[in-house]
Amino acid sequence: MKFPKKASFIEVGPRDGLQNEKVQIDTAVKISFIKQLKKAGFKEMELTSFVSPKWVPQMSDAAEIIAACSDESRNIVLAPNEKGFDRAVASGCSSIAFFVGVSSTFNQKNINAATEESLSRILPLVEKAKDRGLFIRACISTSFYCPYEGKIEEKDTAAICREFVRAGADDLSVADTIGMASPHEVYSLFSRLREEFSDVLLTAHFHDTRGMGLANVLAALQAGIDRFDSSAGGLGGCPFAPGASGNIATEDAVFMLEQMGIETGIQLDPLLDALLLIQPSLNRSISSRQFQLRENAVNS
Ligand code: HMG
Ligand code: MG
After folding, report:
1. Is residue 110 part of a domain?
2. Is the model's pLDDT at 243 over the cut of 80?
3. Which ligand number lies closest to the CA of residue 78?
4. Which residues line ligand 1 (CB under 6 A)?
5. What total of structural domains would you count in the chain?
6. Of all atoms in ligand 1, which is nearest to the CA of residue 142?
7. Tens digits of per-residue pLDDT, 220-240?
8. d(CA 177, CA 246)
9. 292 CA → ligand 1 middle, Å
């Protein structure tokens, strides 16, 4: 098996991890969570979303988060439309993630428009962002399966990626939104995308709903992928994708790669400390292996 010497983790906990939490978390707690996560060494992080507060109230403090947490590293924010894009730019953001699902039913539930219409609204914003010299991430949801439409064809995912690359995207984050893809499907799609989109960053975004997350990381590595979205504590999920549980836990994925001799640049102790800051605000326990192991060691 061939593996890269290094891999990058894009921490999405403050955004994907928290957006699904029903109880509103204090902005100050989110800020200390993000600041502590940064001590673990992430060079890229999704901090928040400039989405409609009516749709996702948890993200309504996006501007305050950005004001408190901006620094030299790549701080990415999501924008669903022109209003979100303008809010993000007004807040001083220079890295924007646009998101569209391959499945029309999912898009209808998530952003209130079918796929074609969503793309026709978002692609001009991508071009606008390109003209301003911003870093552009394209998040492609339901790239393997949709909770409403079932199996997604590889060619349909590739077609959406192509549209984003044509408009100027720098990074394609290709997501298994409901954690349904098998390692075989992951290897197949990412091999195809790696070959076609050799000039852009390509990131794998896995949710661990059915326990295939780390196996899928391995499959993606085999397909030439060396960038992974992950969430501290395995927090997360999309409010409009029933059955989507958390992302792969950053600490478990980092541990696996480091054990394999793949450098990640991420320190586990500060990362696990960040989870101690956010845990009291969550309605549930954190079940990642590394977090549990450290808790057991502390309590024994
Ligand atoms: P809509 O209701 O069709 O929008 O929602 P609208 O244009 O009719 O506006 C409705 C109201 O929202 C108006 O306010 C707007 O001003 C306001 P009112 O006039 O009623 O007072 N509004 C906004 N306010 C602040 N910021 C904005 C904004 N836009 C409108 N940006 C819309 C359409 C796209 C806005 C909505 O559906 C939305 O915000 N959706 C976001 C859903 C979301 O955040 N989903 C999770 C992120 S995607 C994800 O998690 C997947 C990913 O992790 C990858 C994977 O795992 O698959 C990335
Ligand atoms: Mg996600």
Report:
1. yes
2. no
3. 1
4. 16, 19, 49-56, 78, 80-81, 83-84, 87, 99, 110-112, 139, 141, 175, 177, 205, 207, 238, 240
5. 1
6. 57
7. 999 999 999 999 999 988 888
8. 9
9. 35
Pocket test for ligand 1, best of 51, 91, 248 (most atoms within 8 A of CB): 51
The answer to whether the CB of 124 falls within 8 A of the CB of 136 is no
Alpha carbon of 185 to ligand 1 centroid (Å): 31
Q: What is the DSSP letter of 23?
A: S
Nearest residue (by CA) to ligand 1, atom 21, is 54
CA distances from residue 12 to 139, 176, 232 in whole angstroms, order as listed: 12, 14, 8
72 Cβ contact list (under 8 Å, min separation 6): none
Cα–Cα separations (whole angstroms), residue 34 to 3, 18, 157, 271, 292:
30, 11, 32, 10, 21
Residue 138's CATH number:
3.20.20.70
What pTM did the predictor assign? 0.97
Residue 188 to residue 34: CA distance in whole angstroms:
34
Report the number of secondary-structure helices (H) and strands (E) in the chain: 12, 10
Is residue 115 one of the residues assigned to a domain? yes
Cα(132) to ligand 2 centroid in Å equals 27
Residues of the domain holding 271:
8-299
pLDDT tens-digit series, residues 180-227: 999 999 999 999 999 999 999 999 999 999 999 999 999 999 999 999
Cβ neighbours around 175 below 10 Å, total: 29
CA of 25 to the centre of ligand 1 (A): 19
Does residue 2 lie in a domain region? no
Report d(CA 50, CA 265) in Å as an integer.
Answer: 29
**Which are the catalytic amino acids?**
238
CA distance 95 to 46: 9
State both tokens at 126: 């991508």
Residue 1 is assigned to a structural domain of this protein: no
Residue minimizing CA distance to atom 49 of ligand 1? 238
